[in-house]
Design goal:
This protein has about 300 residues and is mainly alpha-helical. It has 14 helices and no strands. α10 runs antiparallel to α11, α12 runs antiparallel to α13 and α13 runs antiparallel to α14.
Length: about 300
């Protein structure tokens, strides 16, 4: 039987929805426009669904956890954190094939938890697909080799732990004990603290460290447009433009009127030399900011400098 990763709970059990909006970094991030959500928006707040899923998972109510994580995934279908948590719920429920699909989806995501590669390898072993498990071992080895200063020491340590545990499972499956590799489900309060830490790190231009804090934030609260916005910002500052674009898209999928993501997406287009698309983002801000806003003025200044 596949051994589920231990769910280390850092502090109190995860509560329901956030008690208050997340804070914003100085100088531009910003939240939504404050108007009603369009009809195309998800019917349920995916962050609330995610948190309900974590509560059910910790209570070993796997069927309910699966239902709630699938609700959350409707708002962010390719999010690594949601698909990883969904995979854990499927494992607990004994649904190995569904777990494999969720972990495969998680492993492809830009914000894939390190444990997704470990769990995917273990599922492949359970399904008798040893070659695929070895491929996950090799993928982890490549990720360790590529983990530079921007990757960060914490992530490198997690990658090494996951590689070691998968190697142990391949060599002696009966003795394998895949411990957490750095992933946990912190409390909402700890998630808010991690978000505040990320804001400070972004303002100090420590973008790799900020991404680590943002991943901890998401482990606590689930998919949130403010978190995706700053994940996009940090990745953009690290030169990972494709990853940044994906995060801005996710932020705007959850909140099409998000001022920060609308502005930052325009700035990304400017960095890519696409002034026409940057101007479209400025036009969107003109619609969102009927009486003017800092995000609209900031993007306008960047466009003027680029022309």
């Amino acid at each position: 039987m596949h051994m589920l990763t231990k769910l280390t709970v850092a502090g109190a059990a995860l509560a329901g929805v956030l008690a208050a909006p997340l804070a914003f970094a100085n100088g531009g991030g910003g939240g939504g426009g404050g108007g009603p959500a369009p009809s195309s928006a998800p019917r349920e707040d995916p962050a609330a669904a995610y948190q309900a899923g974590v509560t059910a998972l910790q209570a070993q109510n796997y069927r309910e956890a699966i239902r709630r994580f699938r609700d959350a995934r409707r708002g962010a279908p390719n999010d690594g954190a949601i698909n990883y948590a969904l995979g854990l719920a499927y494992v607990g429920n004994g649904d190995s094939d569904d777990a494999r699909g969720a972990f495969e989806r998680a492993a492809r995501a830009a914000n894939a938890p390190v444990g997704s590669r470990l769990q995917l390898g273990l599922i492949y072993l359970e399904l008798g697909q040893r070659e695929n498990a070895v491929a996950q071992q090799a993928a982890l080895a490549e990720m360790i080799a590529a983990c530079d200063e921007a990757c960060g020491a914490a992530r490198r340590s997690q990658l090494q732990a996951a590689h070691r545990q998968l190697t142990q499972a391949l060599e002696a499956p009966a003795a394998a004990d895949p411990a957490t590799t750095g992933w946990n489900f912190p409390s909402v309060e700890e998630g808010r603290a991690a978000y505040a830490e990320a804001v400070g790190l972004i303002n100090s231009e420590r973008f790799a460290d900020a991404l680590d804090a943002l991943n901890r934030t998401q482990a606590a609260i689930g998919p949130h447009p403010d978190v995706f916005n700053y994940m996009g910002f940090a990745n953009r500052k690290l030169g990972r433009f494709d990853v940044a674009l994906a995060y801005y898209d996710q932020a705007l999928r959850l909140d099409p009127s998000h001022l920060g993501a609308t502005e930052y997406l325009g700035e990304l287009y400017l960095q890519l030399g696409d002034i026409a698309r940057a101007r479209r983002q400025l036009a969107a801000l003109d619609q969102l900011c009927a009486y003017g806003c800092a995000q609209r003025e900031e993007l306008a200044r960047w466009i003027e400098r680029a022309e």
